[in-house]
Write the structure tokens for this entry.
Amino acid sequence: MAQATFSVGTTVETTDNFVDVAASSNLPVGVHHFQLVVEDDSGNQSAPIVVQIIVKDTTKPTAILTVMPSQVEAGQGFRLDGSKSSDPAPGKIVKFRWTMLD
């Protein structure tokens, strides 16, 4: 067994000296800890050791900007609309930064 699906609190036991964490584990973005205890052929167990892994969302969101209407009379208002912008799940857009360039 070189690949395993992990869930919190469930122990995965192998005879291999490594395990690949399956994408199906669906670890959410954030800090996660994994523990290892090894056992020898006499049944003696090691002290547990813990490592930390950080799962990051590195996929950039997509900004989509529209203006309504696209032409206005001097002194009239208009709307800048970023509502069609998106971020792949499970991400979500939480902030919009608007800048007039010229």
Summary: The chain is about 0% helix and 25% strand. The beta strands are 3-4, 20-21, 30-36, 49-55, 66-68, 79-81.
